[in-house]
Specification:
Blueprint (H helix, E strand, L loop, with lengths): L1 H4 L5 H23 L4 E4 L13 E9 L1 H5 L6 E8 L2 E9 L4 E4 L14 E5 L5 H10 L2 E5 L2 H9 L5 E4 L5 H13 L3 E3 L18 E4 L4 H9 L2
Helix pairs in contact: 4-7, 5-6
Length: about 220
């Protein structure tokens, strides 16, 4: 937020500087506090040692660089702890809104929307999401970063976040940890669990939704 406010950077340059500052802070804090754990950050070269650790921190210092650089609020900071490949602990900050959502501080989720509300990318809505929304009669809510979308479901602003356009572990580990702690349905689009700390961190798709609509979303996906 200080980088955005000081006026020296704009657009992509602002995003790059915000990424750099956040990554430096988080990497230093985590390696100092938890030196025996592994660490995977989008902005840090991976040396492979994390693959031999049961506990691995997975970090996205700035999720939604474009939105951050445009002065929007729908960007996030992700910090998660994966234990034996599962997203166990997580926090997602929404600094533009002054919020931090955590897996250890639960909040009540408002009632399900009527009609259902589905989150999609601002610039390139996934074909699968559009098709499922049409089958379920859901209204579309364009939004920026993955973390902002997932937390919109946790906050009760939407009911379904379905992504198929390609992500990496740092894009969704912290959001998944927070969403799972809040009782949301979090899986791959084929129904398999989300697995973290793999050699290849590419994790292209996921579904985060209210448990009440999980079967309906799965059925809609199965018909595609």
């Amino acid at each position: 937020m200080q980088v955005r406010a000081d006026g020296r950077f704009e657009g992509k340059a602002m995003g790059a500087e915000g990424d750099r500052i956040a990554n430096h802070y988080l990497v230093e804090a985590l390696t100092t506090a938890r030196p025996d754990d592994g660490l995977l950050s989008e902005e840090r070269k991976c040396d492979g040692t994390r693959l031999y650790r049961e506990r691995v921190w997975i970090v996205d210092p700035l999720d939604g660089t474009r939105e951050y650089g445009e002065g929007r609020d729908d960007w996030a900071v992700h910090v998660a702890l994966a234990i034996r490949g599962k997203a166990r602990v997580g926090a997602v900050a929404l600094p533009g809104l002054g919020l931090v959502l955590r897996s250890d501080r639960l909040q009540p989720i408002p009632p399900l929307g009527n009609p259902l509300r589905m989150l999609v990318s601002r610039s390139r809505p996934a074909a699968e999401a559009l098709a499922v929304a049409e089958k379920l009669g859901a209204v579309l809510i364009p939004m920026g970063s993955a973390g902002a979308k997932a937390m919109a479901v946790v906050r009760g602003e939407a009911d379904i976040y379905l992504h198929s356009g390609g992500q990496y572990e740092w894009d969704n580990c912290a959001p998944a940890a927070v969403a799972i702690a809040h009782g949301l349905h979090c899986v791959r689009l084929d129904g398999l669990p989300l697995v973290y700390n793999r050699a290849d961190p590419y994790l292209p798709d996921l579904l985060i939704c209210r448990a009440e609509v999980a079967d309906a979303v799965t059925a809609a996906l199965g018909g595609m």
